[in-house]
Amino acid sequence: MSSAQDTPIMSAVAETRTPEVAPKTPLRWRPALEAVVIPSGAVVAALVMFGIFCAFQGRDAFKVYAAIFKAAFGSWYSFQNTLVRTAPLMLTALCTALPARLGMMVIGNEGALVVGGVVATAAGLAVQSASMPVVIAVMLMAGMAGGGLWITLVGLLYYKRGVNETISSLLMNYIAIALMNHLVNGPMRDPSSLNKPSSFPIPDEKMLPNIGNTNVHYGLIFGIIVCLIAWVLMEHTTFGFKARMIGGNIRAARMAGLPVARIGLITCFLGGAAAGIAGMVEVAAVQGRANESLAAGYGYAGILVSFVARHRGLPIILVATLLGGILASGGILQREFTLPDATILLLQGFIFISILYSESLYGRIKFFKEPGA
Amino acid sequence: MNHGSIGWWGVVIGVLAGSIRGGTPFLLVSLGECLTEKSGKINLGLEGVLLMGAMTAYAISYKTGSSLIGVGAAAGAGALLGMIHAFLVSRPKVNDIAAGVAMLIFGSGLAFYMGKPYIEPTAPQLPGIPLGFWSSVPQIRAALSISPLFVFGVVVAFVMHWFFRSTRWGMHVRAVGDAPAAARAMGISVGRTRFLSIMVGSALGGIGGAHLSLFYPGAWTERISSGQGLMAVALVIFARWNPVQCLWASLLFGGAQSIGPSLQAVGISTGYYLWNASPYILTLLVMIATCTTKRTLVGSPGALGTSS
Q: Where are the domains of chain B?
């Protein structure tokens, strides 16, 4: 992304010592702090702008903040509500985050989620007589394969034909939704679903259960595990190092003999597979069947999560929880403040703009410079 | 609806009518995108601009009773969003594609938020220009009732073509897009040129939105745009950054969009949802066919997609 614009060798070097590396000297805390303070500050600034907007709409901004907080994290019940939304956000965020580390901006999250969900449904229905763990495992594999191949296609178009990956992945979102509509209105349609055309349902007893006696399903665990794997892979393995090197300078990486296209395609597959799991989880734990509810906007919110977390797996877990809370508060804003449901989307827009603006601040605030560096 | 009298001609007429009706928003956003990209920046946020334009046009037309004021307000709303985008991309290290995604979310959020009260009421619509007066077949008359904004778009296409080729300002925009450093050395303000290009481009996108809510489909709903602003980016590549070719490309895309509904109108609903995907598939195919990894595309502004 932005690092590709720096001087070639400089940025490749800079990439090799990202702030997450454990501090070697006591003085390294300031640059490390920068990576925390700038995004957090941007989110706070966005909340302030949103508050001003609310004030213009005649709502008490502080009451709105309080309501969002209460609806998101105020009680164990509402926190569970948040966590249910966190799972798909973490997984869809990776669909942007992983390719972003090698300089590709893929925003086909929604499409990969939908394809993953539909393929997982088809596979789950095919083996529905098997035991629950088998059904879940088959659905998981199918969802990963579906979402993964969908985004691999984006990568193929990019590496083979030079098709801009952002535009192709966005177009493929619409194609994925059209395909799903075609399937649930035709070949996969359950004739008893009248108002909302849907596929046949996954049997209730074969669905992904909740963790213990909570209302939170196992999708959360899937999400956390996948984020951790993504983090280790990208930050602490040679594969991740190669991928980041491509992101730093694709020409230098080619010169160094890296198989750029292969690494790119694998990364695209992994990102798409993560979003595919999100779709699978939505079917296997929440919806029970494939229908248009799959395209609920988790994909687009995932893009935002990835950007706020600066495309790193570990922060994604935290940011997805925060944004999950904001999404969970939509109902309250509607009921208590008569704010339309698009308020949440607008707040996301504020955060996104603020985060992008903050990208221009890195390296410009003196305090964060390593003394003597 | 009775289409029996003209049978399969209904499909042909439907697609032709659709290419003009449905092509108008494509035309206006692609012209806006063309102007923006000529100055060296990409605006993926035109989707948000289109939605915001559609909502503003509808709301203002409803409040004032004048669809013309609605169109003007849509242009203003587009220009405002364009200013935010222009400000963001003028900052160092801010990727214009990412800024576009942010503006897409922000613009649609704002449009949905402010447009909530206008989903029910009916606003005054733009009058059609009846080019089908010579025919007695109602389908043809309906098909040839042209949006005034289509005429506006055609005029803008030719004016913009002339602007780029034969005017000093047009040359400034091209210089900024092709070689910002050289333009700066010539004394052209790169920042201001880009700011104005993005702003005017977004205003055109806003007018495209006005066509959606004030002419066809002619009502404000949250699903009114469905990606037409995004397709503009691909359309401009297809049109090789040439405003007049944007016109032909828009007609093609508008036609592709109306294949599904036209077939359904004569009773063929097989693959209805797949036909709905045809503009997206067409866009993708166009990009696969025209892009290459070997060299930069003919007509592509030199600094496009770089941070200079």
A: 23-127+148-240+277-290
